């Protein structure tokens, strides 16, 4: 495979290879946008900006190089037979809206009911970033997180809720600053038994 052709990991769209432009082409695209916005791209303050933006993009979108399977492949059995709900709430994340390429920022709440093993708690934050650090819709992000948990942990049930503010709704367009979007997905026992969903919501509502 050509070095510039990379499949997107953990994505149903991964069947289609992605041809990546060179870094120089990416930097040139930044210059084009600056000039289109009305800037003089030769002024001193902007000379290094294309390079900085490319570097920032490598960080914002590193999820395309990450693999959820690798994040979730290490599990532990030595938890005294614990098989009740594990919930990590208020996981901060930011992603970028695929429609406007501006951030949406919020918190993820992720729960699962283990079968016979658990995963390191930090990995739920890491798997959120595997998918958040891509161009996304909030719905797709929610679905990808829960799919990764189900595919890799085989839990009795999983629940994912995201709450986020979309800058494309706050800073431009409709300009509804402070509006929060909630998305949620339940699978397994959480989908089948309302009592389990209620427990999830109850634990989410508990004050620290
Ligand atoms: N469902 C969903 N919509 C999103 C998300 N992020 C942004 N959007 C919406 O995507 C829509 C794109 O609408 P368009 O009419 O194609 O684009 P637009 O003219 O820029 O729309 P406005 O934002 O209304 O100005 C907007 O309504 C956004 O609010 C997301 O994560 N999920
Ligand atoms: Zn948007």
TrEMBL record:
GO terms for molecular function: GTP binding; GTP cyclohydrolase I activity; zinc ion binding. Residues 27-203 form the GTP cyclohydrolase I domain. InterPro entries: GTP-CH-I_C/QueF, GTP-CH-I_N, GTP_CycHdrlase_I, GTP_CycHdrlase_I_CS, GTP_CycHdrlase_I_dom. PROSITE patterns: GTP_CYCLOHYDROL_1_1, GTP_CYCLOHYDROL_1_2. One of its GO terms (biological process) is tetrahydrofolate biosynthetic process. Belongs to the GTP cyclohydrolase I family. Homopolymer. Toroid-shaped homodecamer, composed of two pentamers of five dimers. This is GTP cyclohydrolase 1. It comes from Maritalea mobilis. The gene is folE.
